[in-house]
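Allow me, if you will, to draw on your knowledge of protein folds for a short while. I have a record of one protein: its chain in single-letter code and its fold written as discrete structure tokens. I should value your view on which stretches of the chain appear to form regular backbone elements. Thank you for your consideration; the sequence and its tokens are set out here:
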Amino acid sequence: MIISYKPLWHLMLDKNMKKIKLRELARLSTTTLAKLGKDETVNLDMLLRICNVFHCRIEDVVEFMEDE
């Protein structure tokens, strides 16, 4: 299973939000933000914080794809 945060980046573009602002609003560490940028796994709590910032569901910030 491959994780992608492309939906998050598209959402941020739509909202005209920078990564630094997301980090502040969701209280994310720079390490977590770096992991998101590399499509690495992060704690579910961090994803829920992001969802709270955007008032959205988890499917709106992360997608799971089958390995090729």
Notes: The longest helix spans residues 44-54. Residues 2-65 form a domain with the 434 Repressor (Amino-terminal Domain) fold (CATH 1.10.260.40). The chain has one domain: 2-65. Residues 30 and 66 are 28 Å apart (CA to CA).
